[in-house]
Amino acid sequence: MNLYEKKSAVRPGTSAIIVVLVTMIFPLVLTSPAYSDVLTLPAGLAIVMEKSRLIKMAHYGEMASEADTRIARAKMLPDISATGGYSSLAYQPAGLFGSQMTPLSEEDFLFYSLNVQQTLYDFQRSASRYEESKKLLDAKKLDAMRVRNLVAIDFVLVYLDLLESENLVKVAEKEVERLESHLRDAENLYGAGVITKNDLLQAEVKISDARQRLLTARNLRTVTASRLNSILVRPLNKKVQVEDIREVSPHLIETDRERAWEIAEKQRPEVRIAEEITNALDLEKRAVKSEYYPKIFLKGGYDYTENRYQIHEGNWFMTIGMGINLFQGGLTRAEISKIDSQRMRLVEEKNKLIDDIRLEVEKSLLAVKTARDRVAVSKNAVQQAEENLSINRAKYEEGAGTATDVLDAVTLLTVAETNNYKSLYDLKKAEAAVLYATGMELSEVYK
Fold first, then answer.
1. In terms of Cα–Cα distance, which of 163, 166, 177, 185 is closest to 211?
2. I need a surface site. Which of 101, 221, 393, 401 has the fewest CB within 10 A?
3. In angstroms, rounded to a whole number, what is the distance separating the alpha carbons of residues 72 and 285?
4. Domain residue spans in the chain?
5. The pTM is what?
6. Which of 406, 409, 405 is nearest to 385 (CA)?
7. What is the DSSP string of 212-259?
8. Any idea which fold 37-86+116-440 has?
């Protein structure tokens, strides 16, 4: 049996089995992650939280502030130092006692010392500096939280922009399809001698205009996808497909203005940052004031110098001392005055910040209310426009209507669908804005 005959000897049922397996496996391959890049909002937020350059910059700032805290703490611990060496002198040190010269040291000698110094009390100067550094670290952590939420709201809004642009592309495609369907009807009626060529020309012009709008919608979708890829730190031309988001739990959208203001003042990182920095300034002022008072310290150690002319080459020592700055040209007073001015400025900045946040909350709440009303109105408008188009098409096909009526009905339906999608995604954007304005952590809300 030759090779051809062996191949022909395969059982007839085998080919059918292979076809069935390929039919089952091929769709799975096409929908596997390697071939499909469908991005959900929670997955996108997780990528942004990990890769955003702004978040990384804030993290490094937090690490630097943490190092400042360790530096401030180090100043409260003992200062331990050691020195050592070997000296070689050109002349041997000696002293003259009457007419006799007596050696005082060797020409070549080894020496070393160990010193330990600890501040016993400095009127809370070091402790205040350490507490100040911890307050500044807390402020940096809050700032990192602020940056994460800022990046998150930016991503959410662009994500919703992309969803909106995709639906507007679908609306534009439907408009072209409806106009092409109308053109076919007009061609049939023109062939039957029912209408004039003017109806065909109107339909062709409308289709050309609709196709231009479709191109514009597709370009907008491409640009928005590039914006999303930029936030995700991916190549701008990478293809991305997004999935519509679920509705936000109604209890998270605080609609009572006074209550929303109260929540925002408690949760917004910006307000809490201002409070932490104010506390840090108070601690800095306490540390500066301690310059008026003495610093008490304890110092001890061991010194050794190789010298056979001395009775004791090595010696232990301990010193209790006190140091105070008697005059620095008014430096301390000027620093205190500067801190007081910074604190007063910070208080005003915090008050202005609260006013700005209240305005932001109010604008977002009004946007939610307006968008909800628009969604209800536009949804009914779409149903009415669909019915209007159906009626005018039927009348036109029966010869009782005009081409202009059909074209106007198509335009009205396109406008109604566009307004419906715009109002729908404006509502979702406004809800995200309320969550952000009240200080909710968006990466957790949309998880």
1. 177
2. 101
3. 16
4. 37-86+116-440
5. 0.81
6. 409
7. HHHHHHHHHHHHHHHHHHHHTTS-TT---EE-PPPPPPGGGS---HHH
8. Outer membrane efflux proteins (OEP) (1.20.1600)
